[in-house]
Structure formats: C-alpha cells, structure tokens
Amino acid sequence: MALDAVYLETILEHYKRPRNMERPERWDAHARGSNPACGDEITVFLDLEGDRLQRVRFEGTGCAISLSSASMMTEALSGKSLEAAERFRDSFLELMEGEGAPEGTGLGELEALGGVRALPARVRCATLAWEAFTEALRRVSDGQEE
Ligand code: ZN
User: Fold this and answer.
1) CA of 143 to the centre of ligand 1 (A)
2) Are 40 and 66 in contact (CB under 8 A)?
3) Is the pLDDT of residue 146 over 70?
4) 58 CA distance to ligand 1 middle (Å)
5) Most buried residue, 52, 57, 67, 94, by most Cβ within 10 Å?
C-alpha cells in the first residue's frame, strides 16, 4: 500500500465505525452505485430541508476504501446547502481524479483518500458513494424520486 500510515489509520477508523450507516425509514432522494471490479455496493439516502441537505446516510457493503469514503462523505455533506455540497464533491473528485493534488482543499479527513490515487484500480472505490450522491441529486432536480 502506498498510503501513509496516518491516512490509513483514518480510513480504517471510518471502516470499523462507519458514520450514518443505516437505512432510514424515509428519505427525499436516494441512489445506488456499484463497483463490480471490487464488489462494492453503496446506496445513498438524502434528507432535504429546502435546498439544504439535512442529513446524508448510506447502506452497503464493500472494501475499506469504499465504506470509509461513504462514511466521511455523509459527515462532510450533512448540513450543507446543495450548492456547497456540489462544490465540496467537485473538490473531492478533483483530489481523486484531477491532474495534480490540490493544496488546501478544505476536504478535512477526506484528504486521507488522496493516497488512493497511487492505486488507480481503487480510485473508483473511493468515488462510488459520490457517484451515488450525484445520481440522487439528479433525481431531486428531475423530480424522479417518488
Ligand atoms: Zn472497493
């Protein structure tokens, strides 16, 4: 593994004690993502209050990278406006898939996943929950969520 020990510790801590990992009784939007290459399956649930994400939760199974990314994502996005959440997501995707490692991203613990860039086959593990989040947002704006 090319991950720094301190980063690995953050990832494993979220993997062992995932935050907001539960299927809610109700939600305003949800979407499921899967990464067959690794066997990761994550469903993201959004509770909305106007244009604010009141709470983001998830359920699923997968590797340490996919589940810790989902756990950190729910903590980071809960309470943000949709606009701020999308900006935050774009910063994270830039960290994972962009040309150079952005400095001072304000991503907090999620910066731990930046080391996964050294493991190209695992980048999708880190971005899976964010893909599901993006799809859930799209359903909100398209009015597709029942
Ligand atoms: Zn994975």
Assistant:
1) 30
2) yes
3) no
4) 15
5) 67
DSSP string, the chain: --S-HHHHHHHHHHHHS-TTBS--S--SEEEEEEETTTTEEEEEEEEEETTEEEEEEEEEE--HHHHHHHHHHHHHHTT-BHHHHHHHHHHHHHHHHSSSPPSS---GGGGGGGGGGGSGGGHHHHHHHHHHHHHHHHHHHHT---
Q: How confident is the model at residue 94 (pLDDT cuts 50, 70, 90)?
A: very high
CA of 19 to the centre of ligand 1 (A): 18
Distance 119 CA to ligand 1 centre (A): 11
CA 71 to chain centre: 7
For residue 145, report the distance from its CA to the centre of ligand 1, in Å.
27
Q: Is the pTM of this model over 0.85?
A: yes
User: What's the CA-to-centroid distance between 50 and ligand 1, angstroms?
Assistant: 33
Measured in angstroms, how far is the CA atom of residue 127 from the centroid of ligand 1?
10
Question: What domains can you pick out in the chain, each with its CATH number?
Answer: 3-141 (3.90.1010.10)
Q: Select from 12, 8, 61, 9 the least CA-distant residue to 32.
A: 61
